[in-house]
Every structure is written in C-alpha cells, then in structure tokens.
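pinging the channel bc i need a second pair of eyes. not urgent but kinda urgent?? the chain im working w is below, pasted from the shared doc
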Amino acid sequence: MTFSNINTRNLIFRLVTIILVPAMILIAFYNFYTFRSLTDDFVKIDVEHASALQSEMDEKISLINSYLVYEASTNDFATICYDTDDVFNRNLSLSNIINRFSQKILDIPEIAALFVVSDAFCRDRYNSYISYNESSGIKSYVKATWQGNSDTVSQSTYATGWQSCRIGAESYLAYTYYRQNVKLICFFSLEQLYQSIFTRLYEEHTCVISDAAGNILFSCPELISLNTDVLQKDKTNDTQTFSDGRFLYALAFSQYTDFIIISISRLTDIFGNVTILQILLLLLSVLLVLTVPLYFFLLNHFYLKPMKQLTSDMLRMQENNEIIHLDTSYNIQEFTLFQKTLNDLLEKITILNRNYYEKELESQKVRLQCYRLQLKPHFYLNCLKQVYSLLNQGKHDEAENALFYFAGYLRYILKDNVSLIPLSGEMECIANYVKLRNIGSTHPIVCSLQIDDSLKDCPVPMLLLETFLENSVKYATLPDAALQIDIEGYRINDGTGEKAYFCIRDNGKGFDDDTLNRYNLFMQTGGTAADQSRGIGIFNIMQRCHILYQGREFFHFSNQGGATIEIMIPLTDHTE
C-alpha cells in the first residue's frame, strides 16, 4: 500500500481502516494491561504503607523499651522501690524520673503519658496533645489496672510488656514494667504514630493494626471487619501480600510485639469502575466503525468538495498566471476565513512586490551613501602631503611605507558592491589606518586588537569597526598623552543564536549627553527617530546593519572612563 499521489477521499478511507481496527484491539489489550498495572500499583502502595508503619512503630517501641529499662536501673527507681521510709528522697526521685520523661516526650512525640504508681503514690506526666478528658480516662485506666478491677481491665493487662487498650475514641499501646510494688506504665498513641507517617492516604486504602487473633486495635481511615482467616500467616521479617477476591492485603509483622500491621485495598470497587470505563471505550470504538458512512458523507459535503474547488482554482492561477478571487460562500467558517484571507493576500501581492523593490532601492541608496561618505578627501590629501614632506626630507623609507599603508587602506575603502567582508580584512584596514595616522605623530595612537581567532573569518559589514576607530581618533585625541583604543571581540549566545560581540573603548573624554541620546535613540527606534545631521558615519553604519540584519543587531553607546561602543550582530556563514 502506498500513499503517493493519493487523493483526500481515498486517504481518509485508508486511514480509517488502518486506525480503527487496531484501535479496538489496543483497547482490549489496554483493559488487560490496566488491570495488571493497577494491581501492581496497589500492591506496591500497600507494601509501602504497611512497611512504613511497621518500621516506625518498631523503632519507637524499641526506643521506649530501652528508655524504661534504663529508668528501672537508675538510683532514682531503686530509691522509690526500696527506700520507702524516707519520704523526701522518694519524692525527689519521683520528680527526677518525671522530669526526664518530660524531655523524652519531646524526642518521641508518640508517647502519650507515663505513670509511676504504687500503693503509696501515683505520679504522671502527659504529652501536650492529650486533652483533659483523655487524661482522665487514662488515669482511670491506670487506677483500675493497679487495683485489679476485673470489670474495667482484663487480667492480661497485668502482664509485663506491650498490650493494647482503647480509652475513649483513641487507641493506645500500654507498656507495664514491674519491680517490687512499683509500676512504670507508658502509653503509646497509635493515632500520633499514624499521623507522623502519613499526611494523606488514598481513600481506597485502609491501614489496620491487629493482634494475632484478628482483633482490630487501630484502623485508619475507617474501621472494617476482618476475616481472621486472612491473618493465619507465619510471622516473618518480610511483608506478605495476598488477596481474598474482595480485598488486597499487605501484612507486616512487628519485631517486638505480636501485633500485625495490615494495609488493605478495596479491589472490587476500584476495578469494577475501571472495567466499566474500558467497556464504554470499546463500545465507543464499535459505534465509530458503524458511523463511518455518515462521516464520509459529512466529509464529502463540508470538506472534500470545497477542497476540490480550491485545488482547481489554485491550478488555474498557476497555469494562467492570473489572480482569481476564490468563492467564499461555504458553510464551514474555517474554509470561508481561509479563502477570504487568501483573496486579501492575493490582492496585496502587487503592493508587497512594489514595497520589496522600494526597500531594495532604499538599501542601495544607503549603500551608495555609505560609499560616498567613505571618500574623505581631506584625509587623503593630508596623507599625500605627508608623503611629499617625507620625500623632501629625504626619508624615502618612511615615505615608501606610508604609500604602502595608504594603498592598502584605499584599496579596502574603495571595494565595490560589497556588503559583508571577512573580519580579518576589517582588522587589516584598522592596522593600516593606525599606521598612517602615526606617521610623524608626536603622540602615536595605541590600538589594541583582541579578537577571538574563531571570528576572523566571519563576515561582517564593511567599516563596522573602522568607523568607530576613526570617530575616537577625531574626537578623543588627547593633547598631552597618547590615545589608547582597545577593540575586543568574541562569540556569545544570547538565547536566540550565535552572535559576534565587539566592544570599542578609548581613554578620551567620552560622548557628550546629547550625542549619547541621539545614538541610543536611533538604535531604539530602528533608525527612524534621530537627528543625523552630526555623526553621519556612525548613523550610516547602524542603518546598514539594520537593513542587513532586520533588527537583530545591537548597538549601545556609553561612557566608561572614555567612549565605549558595544556591538552585537548575528553570525552568518557567507559573505554577500
């Protein structure tokens, strides 16, 4: 099958045939792939949730275990256990333990409260987020635990180690440590643990903490009923994943307790919605195939016929070399707008051609003006007089050198019909000009050329740099010192492409304010708003650059210790 020289009607039919059938196959494959991808994504998210909660809980439990063991080994705890007669030392030791706990809750914000209790005393400290009602509930729980009230607390609570408890609407883990008749009881907030790990949980996921029997100790965001059969797994160090057909489970086992952290995804709801979406896409593709004839009719009436007429009119214009006004009485706005716009463009072709020739004429006038301005009879006469004087003085070698420099300079200046020349030629012209000026001069001009070697073959407008050198020689010459002129050039990239950057500086008095304003205003307005009665050579080179580079050039005049001119022009690969 080839698409060479095919008309629009056949092209559309082939595209429909080629695209729609594979599209239906791709949609079916997409259903299967989406199901597998979403399953993998939910497994990954569940594993991350369960692992993060398990790691954080085990880390905090380990720290609290170490802290309580350390407190039980201190002299303060020994004092309250054995030195029961000395009330002062006992209270002092209690205060020390409570004060150290105050620092510990700053390090482990999941610690909700700590109690040091016995038959003779009960000291406590709560975290700042514990409300009055919660603290009252925790204290009632501790009293019931210590007094052994079987109606309030199960007997398993008396065992040393981590046990779960629910006080009001909050879930806690409580660790009880015995020694003699003294208990250290620490409450660990599961809610704070969860909030510290997950700031946002997908609504399709639930995190649950349960004991080995399947009793839910904590659930977020909502409580669900667990089938205890899914929890009959061997405890390992790795996260286990499986599904019961309705939910996807990821189980992580605590290393220090018998608690199980479970991340659960509701597969039935999510994949039910996804499947419906994919079925709708499949039905839509079938409907698209069935409506192909209608599409062809509409395309033929609103698109193919106007396109055929437009093609015919364009061929007539090409064959007869005449302008034809196209029919704009179509129902499609885009066609009407296109053909109306094309008619307007055709009417403007003659005007544009005339403007183009006028622009070319203007460009030629500017070039001719430039060549006329390049003729400096006073400078040439002075050079000839200087040569004549050297000959009269018998300085034949100097006169010969002067003629050589003058010939090279004049050859460059009088080049005919050249817009762009290699930068090396401009540098040679500058060298000849400086040598001519320095013949017989009391204070020779010092000209420093620092040009990147990569620029020397690049084409630039003729007299681009020499014009500004002559301007410095004419207006910046110092009566008692040598004139220093520095010219540097290198490549830059300003984001719009490679450009050549030049900077000409002298050590003279600089531009006056009026001259600066005129030159910079000429650049800003594209050569349309500046008094060109003075500095005609500089205005001329700027106008030539504007014609050559269509506004992509840059000139800036300033005073930085002397006159400073910055130039930027696009780099081209050929001379004109």
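so Confidence is low (pLDDT under 50) at residues 149-159. and The chain has three domains: 28-282, 297-360, 415-570. — does that match what u expected or am i reading it wrong
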